[in-house]
Amino acid sequence: MHSIHSIEKKIKEHEQHFLASFEQAAVGIAHATIDGRIILVNQRFAYILGYDPKELINMHIEEINFQEDWKDVANRLSRLVDGTLDRYVVERQLKTKKGEVVWTNVTASMVKDIDEVPQYYILIFEDITEQKKSARVLKKYQLLFENARDIILFVSTEGHIVEANRAAEIAYGYEREALLSLNIRDLRAPSSLHVVERQMKQADSTNGIIFETLHQRKDGMFFPVEVSSISTMVDQQPLLLSIIRDISERKKQEEEIKRKNEKILSYSRTLEKINEQLTLANQLKSEFLANVSHELRTPLNAIIGYADLLQQAEELTKNERIIFTDTIFKSGLQLLRILNDVFELSMIETEASVIEEIVPVALNDLFSEVEEAYRSKIKNKGIEFQVQLPPSDLIIMADFMKLQEVLHRIIDNALKFTEKGSITITYQKQKGKVECLIKDTGIGIDSSKLHLIFEKFIQLDGSVSRKYGGTGLGLPISKALIEQMKGTIEAESEGIGMGTTIRMTFQEKKAQ
């Protein structure tokens, strides 16, 4: 009796040790019957899947696997039962209580009795979700590193190149092995070697350094670069990360801008004279011309002022040169847009058609392109942008490019006069025709003046034009283009502060 009692005591102790180990294991453990019902789980397994342990009891293994994986899981479990597999280890996605994915490393085996009859499965699950995420992030950065257009170098504090991307091989003309045998000094023009030490120390001791210099290719040719260097740690080794951009084209553009300064100034003075002459037009056009004067003068002043400053380029910093050239370029584009509007209006005034080709236009395609062009621009202003497309596409006959231009003009107008709320574009079939609608929640229009907004040279409110800018040509040009495409356009508004709707109507192209 004493011996039996002692054996029972030891069995209980072993059971307690087993349960303690089972519950405190760092991996998830589950026992399941041969037909797949879960009969025992530890806390870690329940935690991995987001369940209470009691919820998992009597659940089927299939319920924690994704449908696309179940056939493989069932096949492996079946092979454990028939003895063709002793155990298996596999990476598997499991489904949490919330339906989310958790990556696990699964080890499965079969417990048999003394007669080798299968009793139950033991399933061990190691959560490897974080390792998977880390691997994806690492792969992402490796792809970014290798596919970057800029040269990327990791350089030791002594200047030895320890890593380089594909762009570096192409730019310098070296094979990878040869490139990694070089010192950063081997890539510098001799005239700049005297500042290498100072620049490396600056990059290592500050928040980084940005500078321009000359680098040398394997064939001996030099090319200008912009270098951005900062200190970093890789595998506990201090390195300099240098991102290097070939600025040959930028330098050519700067030289081109310098050569054209006098020509730009000459054109600017000529345009100013034209602007002065335009202001002598009749009273009906006076406010229109005042607006054009303002819109022309803004970019012209920028072009003249910054062009003059660029003549003193040797006294300017790199950032100042970039800012000045960018301002001249943007001002030139602004000026070109104004002149294009005036030219297009002059064509319309002479009753010349500016429509190039009338073709079938799928409105879903057109509206999708417009959405792509404006989504970020409108979002950055804090305005909601809605593009509502009907279930079935509609096709009209129009000049695709000119209709796209009209949509851009009207949306630009809506964006200019809408400070909060939303802009919505949509189209619909109405009484046998197709209506395109652009709605905004902007400043609205006095209903008594709606009939004037498409009239050339007429500004409804000069103070509004001065506040928001613009020549006021967008809607008159849009109306002329729509009419040349055999369509109609009209505006609707319930009054000041109530927003505006622009409605364009076209004939639908019937299926052949």
TrEMBL record:
<keyword id="KW-0175">Coiled coil</keyword>
<keyword id="KW-0597">Phosphoprotein</keyword>
<keyword id="KW-0808">Transferase</keyword>
<dbReference type="GO" id="GO:0000155">
    <property type="term" value="F:phosphorelay sensor kinase activity"/>
</dbReference>
<feature type="domain" description="PAC">
    <location>
        <begin position="88"/>
        <end position="140"/>
    </location>
</feature>
<dbReference type="InterPro" id="IPR035965">
    <property type="entry name" value="PAS-like_dom_sf"/>
</dbReference>
<dbReference type="Pfam" id="PF13426">
    <property type="entry name" value="PAS_9"/>
</dbReference>
<dbReference type="InterPro" id="IPR000700">
    <property type="entry name" value="PAS-assoc_C"/>
</dbReference>
<dbReference type="InterPro" id="IPR003594">
    <property type="entry name" value="HATPase_dom"/>
</dbReference>
<dbReference type="Pfam" id="PF02518">
    <property type="entry name" value="HATPase_c"/>
</dbReference>
<dbReference type="GO" id="GO:0016020">
    <property type="term" value="C:membrane"/>
</dbReference>
<feature type="domain" description="PAS">
    <location>
        <begin position="137"/>
        <end position="207"/>
    </location>
</feature>
<dbReference type="InterPro" id="IPR003661">
    <property type="entry name" value="HisK_dim/P_dom"/>
</dbReference>
<keyword id="KW-0902">Two-component regulatory system</keyword>
<feature type="domain" description="Histidine kinase">
    <location>
        <begin position="291"/>
        <end position="510"/>
    </location>
</feature>
<dbReference type="InterPro" id="IPR005467">
    <property type="entry name" value="His_kinase_dom"/>
</dbReference>
<dbReference type="Pfam" id="PF00512">
    <property type="entry name" value="HisKA"/>
</dbReference>
<protein>
    <recommendedName>
        <fullName>histidine kinase</fullName>
        <ecNumber>2.7.13.3</ecNumber>
    </recommendedName>
</protein>
<feature type="coiled-coil region">
    <location>
        <begin position="250"/>
        <end position="277"/>
    </location>
</feature>
<dbReference type="InterPro" id="IPR050736">
    <property type="entry name" value="Sensor_HK_Regulatory"/>
</dbReference>
<dbReference type="InterPro" id="IPR001610">
    <property type="entry name" value="PAC"/>
</dbReference>
<keyword id="KW-0418">Kinase</keyword>
<feature type="domain" description="PAS">
    <location>
        <begin position="14"/>
        <end position="84"/>
    </location>
</feature>
<dbReference type="InterPro" id="IPR000014">
    <property type="entry name" value="PAS"/>
</dbReference>
<dbReference type="InterPro" id="IPR036890">
    <property type="entry name" value="HATPase_C_sf"/>
</dbReference>
<dbReference type="InterPro" id="IPR036097">
    <property type="entry name" value="HisK_dim/P_sf"/>
</dbReference>
<dbReference type="InterPro" id="IPR004358">
    <property type="entry name" value="Sig_transdc_His_kin-like_C"/>
</dbReference>
<feature type="domain" description="PAC">
    <location>
        <begin position="209"/>
        <end position="259"/>
    </location>
</feature>
